[in-house]
Amino acid sequence: MTPQRFRAIVDAYGADARHWPEAERAAASAWAAQHRSEADALLAQAAQLDAWLASDAAATDLAPDAALIERVVASAPANRQPRQPRQARRLSLAWPVGGSGRVGWWWSGAAFAGVGLIGGLAGAFAVSFFLVTGNPSPGPESSYLTTGFGGTAADWSDE
Amino acid sequence: MSERDPDAELVAGVGRQEPSAVRTLVARKLPRLLALATRMLGDRMEAEDVAQEAFMRIWKQAPRWREGEARFDTWLHRVVLNLCYDRLRAHREQPADELPDHADPAATPDAQLEAQSREARVRAALAALPARQREALVLNYYQDLSNIEAAALMGITVDALESLLSRARRNLRAQLAGDDLAGTRTSR
Question: Which residues of A touch B117 (CB under 8 A)?
């Protein structure tokens, strides 16, 4: 361990030896013990920043709230339940920008059901028309085949 | 990889749709994922959305998960970071005319400095870092990943990781020291 390497380790990983590279931890600690004053000057500066960072750890590393935990657990295939009100609220916030996979998934389900229903009605109409006229009905207009939900399934399936 | 993946059995249980495994995995991973996303995005609500999306990926992948290719925790960190970068990119691409026309008087630097707690100042300093520096610091310092794990996760060498970490810490120190000076000036 050289003084330069010790300084580089402290500059990058801070004063807490737990964050130091495992392969160099023992050597760096031994160097610090042998060069106390030099090491202390470097460690003191890094420890000041570590203390700042630790204050954010206390504020940010809060336990997730119970409602979030339940939403996540409920989203597992074994526990799927109807969507919670929070999703409906977020949906209205996300529309029309969209972009969230979760919101896209919700809409793709609605789109799928809607397209299925419309397809069934169109099929029944075509059959009845053919029976009456003896001719196949003209195909649907191309605009009829598109919906406002076209891209959402792709959003959801995107890895 | 010689060591067993500590999450392997749990992920297998999730793949078999065992409710107890699902609950245990959520308890084990959700706090870490939430903290990671909160620091990367600077927004708890968005971080919650990212965490939920990450778990949807877990439910999808768990039945196909095979031990030995990558540690589950490393894969999961990558999933969360990718989701965070998607959102950070989306924020950057938002048209300027969607920004408020007038500055919030409560957000002027002096008022902000007085109102900000120590934690909020650190959070603001973290948020001001370039994203890759923030990622390196969050993975190494807050997520307790080793330098080798963090570098592998970021797709860079350990030397490059150290360089990012050094610059991140230097920038944070400069910004927080600047805040201290400004705080002293405004309190006079």
Answer: 59
Per-residue pLDDT for A126 more than 70? no
Q: 30-49 in A: which are within 8 Å (CB) of B?
A: 45-46, 48-49
What is the value of pTM for the model shown?
0.66
Q: Which residues of A touch B158 (CB under 8 A)?
A: 21
More confident residue, B188 or B136: B136
Task: Give the model confidence (pLDDT) of A7-19 as tens digits.
Answer: 999 999 999 999 9
Provide the pLDDT for residue A102. Answer: 47
Shortest Cα distance from B49 to chain A (angstroms)?
A: 8
Q: Which residue in chain B has the smallest CA separation from A78?
A: B17
Q: What whole-number distance in Å separates Cα of residue A154 and Cα of residue A159?
A: 10
A84–chain B Cβ distance below 8 A for any pair: no
ipTM of the complex: 0.76
- Number of helices (H), then strands (E), belonging to chain B: the values are 9, 0
Cα–Cα distance for residue pair A30/A17, rounded to 1 Å: 11
Min distance B178 CA to chain A CA atoms (Å): 13
Q: What are all long-range contacts of A3-10, with beta carbons under 8 Å and residues at least 24 apart?
A: A3/A31, A3/A35, A3/A38, A6/A31, A6/A32, A6/A35, A6/A39, A6/A42, A7/A42, A8/B162, A8/B166, A10/A42, A10/A43, A10/A46
Least Cα separation, residue B140 to chain A (angstroms): 7
Q: How far apart are CA B78 and CA B61, in angstroms?
A: 14
Map residue B181 onto helix, strand or coil. Answer: helix
Give the tens place of pLDDT for each residue, A62-84. 789 999 999 999 999 877 655 55
Chain B (90-129) residues lying within 8 Å, Cβ to Cβ, of chain A: 90, 117-119, 122-123, 126
Give the Cα separation of B167 and B133 in Å (integer).
7
